[in-house]
Structure formats: structure tokens, C-alpha cells
Specification:
Oligomer: heterodimer
Order of helices and strands of chain B: HHHEEHHHH
CATH architecture of chain A: 3-Layer(aba) Sandwich
Number of helices of chain A: 8
Distance between the termini of chain A: 51 Å
CATH class of the largest domain in chain B: Mainly Alpha
Strand order of the largest sheet of chain B: 1-2
Shape of chain B: elongated
CATH topology of chain A: Rossmann fold
Distance between the termini of chain B: 41 Å
Structural class of chain A: alpha/beta
Strand content of chain B: 5-15%
Structural class of chain B: mainly alpha
Number of domains of chain B: 2
CATH superfamily of chain A: P-loop containing nucleotide triphosphate hydrolases
Strand order of the largest sheet of chain A: 6-7-8-3-9-10
Helix content of chain A: 25-40%
Number of strands of chain A: 10
Helix content of chain B: 55-70%
CATH superfamily of the largest domain in chain B: Winged helix-like DNA-binding domain superfamily/Winged helix DNA-binding domain
CATH class of chain A: Alpha Beta
Largest sheet of chain B: 2 strands, antiparallel
CATH architecture of the largest domain in chain B: Orthogonal Bundle
Shape of chain A: globular
Radius of gyration of chain B: 22 Å
Largest interface: A-B, 31 and 35 residues
CATH topology of the largest domain in chain B: Arc Repressor Mutant, subunit A
Number of strands of chain B: 2
Radius of gyration of chain A: 20 Å
Number of helices of chain B: 7
Number of domains of chain A: 1
Largest sheet of chain A: 6 strands, mixed
Chain lengths: ~260, ~170
């Protein structure tokens, strides 16, 4: 791994990132030249229409798929050239992943699912157990520790997946539509947990369709046709002068201005 | 504000300040609490229109207070209001007018218009989510009011995305 020639405070940085898929005789570019920085402690949401390349971008940034071109820097070190196994080691220590369909190991208990990442990263069984107990308590699923994931509701499974992703206190949490398969009550629970993790300093990069996430994130990156169409800090809205709308939102604006 | 006041008075006679409190307690901080002056003015007009009548009640060491109650005419108007459906979503949308027409005259770029409108919506979403986070002890009505605003805003954002897909 080469060291960054310039000092860089970003936890994650992508430069000129491109991801091509071979298709028939030609190739399709799902990600077409993305420059992105995520600072330590930031919560960044990636939004955009279906097919805009959001999930592909996240997978490439987390090393689940190799980039075709461009650079990825994680914690000041170049990561785009790593082998799959080197990526796996990097993820184990520094990157937590949460997916839309939970991806829990069905033959293991909830507790074992959460302890496994710590054990793989070299923690003692005692340390792994302690961390698991803390996380399950924090996420309100202690009572389900000995159950197999299949006995849990979707919302509970996603909380377990979140516990697993946070088990090694990763520098970066990558989340791919974590509320995409949940009803609104469970969505609100998972968002509340992400909000709390962020308040505790967790860096989060999250692909989502859910506009509520924009209300929790520090920044929203809008992807369109594999490129960044907008990248903006979320700032509380001010009342717009001289405008009045007789809707719940309009009334709310009257109040907040 | 006329009909909500009539609806509260249909439950029991009340004076202006009690009505203000009832609105606040039911709908919470998301609802723009009318100031007491607006309530008194509205009650006065309702009385002029024969929809409520008032009675002065003496108070110790304070000016008399007016207690209002619903008249038969008021009850009739309220019944009509309650049973009538309310208008659906707007078809006219000021932002959409800008989005479609401004680029034709070379006044603006559509992607920039969409981005700036979207940033504003995100800011509103931030306000709503902050509000929602502090609503653990709010009434169901107050929580649903904010949830309704969130859902409307989500629809506005989805529509913005569709505009982006089709027009940019």
C-alpha cells in the first residue's frame, strides 16, 4: 500500500471512481467518475433514482466489488488495488456493512452472529461476548440472543445486523438500503439507532431511497446516471418570506421561521 | 380556524383561552398555535354570523370572561363541514411552473433548479425529524400531524426525482 502523498483528513476518499460491467459485446458504466470524501464522524446519505449506481458505488467503496478505474483511500491508505482477501481483512477491522436483506447466518444464533466478527478479528471469546451483550442491550434485543434469526421479525433482524456491523467498532459503517425491506415502525426504530450511533461519533455512509434519512444525515449526495448530481450539507430550512401554504408542511414552516 | 373552534365548542362551552389551550394540547408544537388575539377575533365574527353566542361570566378581581357556546346554526355548519370531503393534492405547483417554463427562456438550468429545491426540502425534513425525535410524550394527533408532513414531503421529493429523470 502506498501512503497518501498529500495529507488527507477524510476517512474515506474516492477519486475518479469508475465501475464497468461487461454486457454482451460492450460494457456498461454503472459508476462514471465519482469524487467523494467522507470525514470522520460524518453521516452521509447517497440518494438518487433506481439504477443511478448508488448500491454499486457503495459496494465498490467497501471492496465488495473491484473498481474498474480510480482511487479509493481509507484511513489515509490506498485501498483500490487490494486483493479480495486483503479487503476482507480491512473490512473486518475497519468497515461494518448493513444490507437490505439483513444477510444474517441462519444456522447460528443471534448471539453468535454478533460475536463472530469480533472473534474473526482476533478478540478473545470473553471480549466478544462482552461486546455482544452491550450491543444487544443497546439495540433492545437481548431477549432474542439465543434464537435463530428466522424467529425474529424483519425489524429485529436488521437490529441484529446492525449490532454485527458495529461489533468491531468500525471506523466506517456502510449501509445499503437498511430500511428498504421494513415497515414504517421498524424503519423508525432502525433510523433512531443509526441516529444514536452517529451521535456517538460513528461515521456512516448510507445508500437509501428513504427521504427521512436526509433529515438525519449531515450531507446528501445525489447520484444520477452514475455521477454526482449534487452534494450538499443538510441545513435546517428557514421560513421563506412572503410565502404561506395551507398544508401541514406550510404550517410547520410558519412555525419554524 | 373557524371550523376547529366550532368543533371544540360542540364538545362543551368554553372561553377563548381554553380553546387556545385545547388546540395546543391536541395538536402539539407542529401545529401553528393561533395567538389569543386571532381566536378572540374569530369568535367575535362567529358570533356576528350567529354561529355561536356568548355569556359574560363574572370573575373575582379580574375582568369578566366571555364563555361561548354553539348555536343551532353553528351546529348545522359544523355538521356540513365534518361530512364534506376536503380537496385533494394540488395540481398547480409553483415550483413546477418554474421548472418547466424558466429554462425555455434561458433563465435557469433545470438540474440547478431541482437541486436547490431538493436542498430546501431536505432542510424541512431535518426540521421535521428533529421535531419527531422530541415527541415521545406527544399526543397521537400531534405525532400524526408531523408524520403527515413527512409523507407529503417524501412524495414531493419522489416527484422531484421523476422530474429529474424525465426533464433533465
Amino acid at each position: 500500500m502506498r501512503q497518501d502523498p498529500e495529507p488527507c483528513t477524510a476517512l474515506l476518499r474516492a477519486r475518479g471512481l469508475v465501475k464497468e460491467y461487461k454486457s454482451g459485446g460492450g460494457s456498461v458504466e454503472a459508476v462514471r467518475g465519482v469524487d467523494l470524501e467522507v470525514g470522520a464522524g460524518e453521516f452521509v446519505a447517497i440518494m438518487g433514482p433506481s439504477g443511478s449506481g448508488k448500491s454499486t458505488l457503495l459496494h465498490v467503496l467497501g471492496g465488495l466489488e473491484p473498481a474498474t478505474r480510480g482511487e479509493i483511500w481509507l484511513r489515509g491508505k490506498r485501498a483500490d488495488g487490494l486483493s479480495p482477501s486483503a479487503w476482507a481483512v480491512l473490512r473486518r477491522r475497519h468497515v461494518g456493512f448493513v444490507f437490505q436483506f439483513f444477510n444474517l447466518l441462519s444456522t447460528m444464533t443471534v448471539a453468535d452472529n454478533v460475536e463472530l466478527p469480533a472473534l474473526l478479528a482476533g478478540a478473545t471469546p470473553k471480549q466478544a461476548r462482552k461486546r455482544r451483550e452491550e450491543l444487544l442491550a443497546e439495540l433492545g434485543i437481548t431477549a432474542k440472543a439465543d434464537a435463530p434469526p428466522s424467529r425474529l421479525s424483519g425489524g429485529e433482524q436488521q437490529r441484529v445486523a446492525l449490532a454485527r456491523a458495529l461489533a468491531n467498532e468500525p471506523s466506517l459503517l456502510l449501509a445499503d438500503e437498511p430500511t428498504g425491506n421494513l415497515d414504517s415502525a421498524n424503519t423508525n426504530d432502525v433510523l433512531r439507532l443509526l441516529r444514536r450511533a452517529h451521535a456517538g461519533g460513528q461515521t456512516i455512509l448510507m445508500v437509501t431511497h428513504d427521504a427521512k434519512v436526509a433529515g438525519l444525515a449531515d450531507r446528501v449526495v445525489n447520484l444520477f446516471d452514475g455521477m454526482i448530481a449534487d452534494d450538499a450539507r443538510v441545513v435546517p430550512a428557514q421560513r421563506l418570506k412572503g410565502q404561506r401554504r395551507e398544508t401541514a408542511i406550510g404550517n410547520f414552516l410558519e412555525l419554524s421561521g | 380556524m373557524r371550523q376547529p373552534l366550532l368543533a371544540l365548542l360542540a364538545k362543551e362551552p368554553a372561553h377563548g383561552y381554553e380553546l387556545k389551550l385545547a388546540l395546543e394540547q391536541t395538536f402539539g408544537q407542529a401545529y401553528p398555535s393561533p395567538n389569543i388575539g386571532q381566536i378572540y377575533v374569530t369568535l367575535k365574527r362567529l358570533e356576528q354570523d350567529g354561529l355561536v353566542r356568548s355569556q359574560d361570566v363574572e370573575q373575582d378581581s379580574r375582568p369578566n370572561k366571555k364563555v361561548y357556546e354553539l348555536t343551532e346554526a353553528g351546529r348545522g355548519l359544523l355538521a356540513a363541514w365534518v361530512t364534506e370531503p376536503i380537496d385533494g393534492p394540488r395540481v398547480r405547483d409553483e415550483f413546477f411552473m418554474k421548472l418547466v417554463l424558466a429554462p425555455l427562456a434561458g433563465l435557469a438550468d433545470r438540474m440547478e433548479l431541482i437541486n436547490s429545491q431538493r436542498r430546501h426540502y431536505f432542510g424541512i425534513m431535518r426540521n421535521l425529524m428533529d421535531m419527531q425525535a422530541g415527541m415521545d410524550r406527544a399526543t397521537p394527533a400531534a405525532r400524526l400531524l408531523v408524520e403527515g408532513a413527512v409523507l407529503h414531503l417524501q412524495a414531493d421529493l419522489d416527484w422531484l426525482e421523476r422530474c429529474q429523470e424525465e426533464l433533465v
